[in-house]
Write a structure and sequence with these properties.
The chain is mostly helical. The protein has 9 helices and no strands.
Length: 192
């Protein structure tokens, strides 16, 4: 028994066991913060300004759920149902570029901390995409439009995060909110 206890108190033995345990334990990947419709919207938006707009909309949806703000797509969906017959008749005459679908799928779900973590992941992905685009497009009007949109929406989202701060009730939520605020402040600073 003494040998068994001294084995586990040895720092080398503990380090080796910990390394073996970590090597063979399953690695849990974080759930993708985007639903299939959101992924499709991102893939469809090839230009940096459109992709920025899509990412900002996706991120804002998470904040709206936390704040209990009704999605604008519900109003648009009701209007679509009322005009369904008319749309079928005019479908052939529509210009695909003028028709902007607001179908981002079901509203995001999760705890406040999960939604804030997802918000941070979406915004981080957007910042990565903008960093990549900066190398090739920094002087293009499309890139400038994307940065302008990020600055405008970023400031709006920072205000939403300030509203969320009054709803924070746990350490996990506070941590997630801190990361979200830090990410959007970085985005705003970079956009200036």
């Amino acid at each position: 028994m003494y040998y068994f206890i001294s084995f586990f108190t040895s720092s080398k033995a503990c380090s080796i066991l910990l390394a073996i345990f970590l090597a063979f334990s399953p690695i849990q990947k974080g759930k993708d913060p985007l639903n299939p419709q959101e992924i499709e919207r991102v893939q469809d938006a090839q230009q940096v300004d459109m992709r920025t707009k899509v990412f900002l909309r996706i991120a804002e949806r998470r904040l709206n759920v936390i704040l209990g703000i009704a999605p604008t797509t519900l109003i648009q969906d009701n209007n679509k149902k009322e005009n369904k017959k008319e749309n079928k008749k005019n479908k052939e005459n529509k210009d695909p570029e003028q028709e902007e679908s607001n179908d981002y799928g079901p509203e995001p779900t999760g705890t406040t901390a999960q939604l804030l973590d997802n918000y941070t992941r979406v915004m981080t992905e957007l910042l990565d995409k903008l960093d990549d685009a900066y190398e090739n497009q920094k002087n293009s009007p499309i890139f400038e439009s994307a940065v302008k949109k990020l600055l405008e929406k970023g400031q709006e989202q920072l205000k939403l995060l300030e509203k969320i701060s009054s709803k924070v009730s746990s350490d996990d939520e506070e941590r997630a909110l801190g990361k979200a605020v830090e990410t959007i402040q970085t985005a705003i600073t970079g956009a200036r």
